[in-house]
Automatic annotation (TrEMBL):
The lineage of its organism: Bacteria, Bacillati, Bacillota, Bacilli, Bacillales. It comes from Marinicrinis lubricantis. One of its GO terms (molecular function) is ATP binding. It comes from the Bacteria. This is ABC transporter ATP-binding protein. The keyword Nucleotide-binding applies. Residues 12-242 form the ABC transporter domain.
Length: 242
């Protein structure tokens, strides 16, 4: 991480966000006046079953979709009303995505996969190679940087995906079911790596349906029927204070 980490600074703040969709003749409210804050340096898990609004919330946090109403600040910028082009620029600079299915390009080496978001950002070749190598070193895969995804285990592929998320030094890592395609042993190894990255100062928001995975974060926020509540607290009390 570059610079000094301000642990008293909100990394993201969502206030009274709702998201409505029209399905046939019916209006569906996927998010219902949700509010939450994640401070810089936190590791927070958001857990919920299918249909709870979890994916909609992830898309909002990841600047992949805009809310119908409410406000969203990411790293000090209000992003809820930005155009698609500006949201794409925010995603590239401020969010490192980690996906369940890794989303690696099979014809590229681990190093080349990690370099991809840096190419889109316009980082010069020499610098992006240095950043990619440093990221692979951080996930202990520098010796495999020339290997293609098919030559790597599932856990190693996820480490490459994590390195790709880290390479541009984004202020937020957003992990969507990062252990969903892995066995128990490998899942534990990936979660240990995420915890180590968090201890180094990376802010991580983890989306999951698995409570055993969620409990490895420092905070657990449950989503149900488009509303949020924090584990161990009354849902309406927490909804008002997040």
């Amino acid at each position: 991480m570059t610079g000094v980490i301000d642990y008293g600074k909100p990394m993201l703040r969502i206030e009274h966000v709702s998201k409505r969709y029209r399905m046939g003749g019916e209006i569906v409210k996927a998010l219902d006046e949700v509010s939450m804050t994640v401070m810089q340096g936190e590791m927070v898990a958001i857990i919920g079953p299918s249909g709870s609004g979890k994916s909609t919330l992830m898309n909002t946090i990841g600047c992949l979709d805009s809310p119908t109403s409410g406000s969203y600040w990411l790293d000090g910028d209000e992003v809820s009303r930005l155009s698609e082009n500006k949201l794409a620029a925010i995603r590239n600079r401020k969010i490192g995505f980690i996906f369940q299915s890794f989303n690696l390009l099979s014809k590229l080496s681990a190093l080349e996969n990690v370099e991809l978001p840096l190419i889109y950002r316009g980082v010069p070749a020499k610098q992006r190679k240095e950043l990619a190598i440093a990221a692979l070193r951080k996930v202990k895969l520098e010796e495999r940087m020339g290997h293609k995804p098919t030559e790597l285990s599932g856990g190693q592929q996820q480490r490459v995906a994590i390195a790709r998320a880290l390479a541009g030094e984004p202020p937020l890592l957003l992990a969507d079911e990062p252990t969903g395609a892995l066995d128990t042993k490998t899942s534990n190894e990936v979660m240990q790596l995420l915890q180590e990255l968090n201890e180094q100062g990376h802010t991580i928001v983890l989306i999951t349906h698995d409570m055993d995975i969620a409990k490895q974060a420092k905070r657990v926020i449950r989503i149900q029927d488009g509303k949020l509540y924090e584990e161990g607290r009354d849902p309406y009390e927490v909804q008002s204070r997040l």
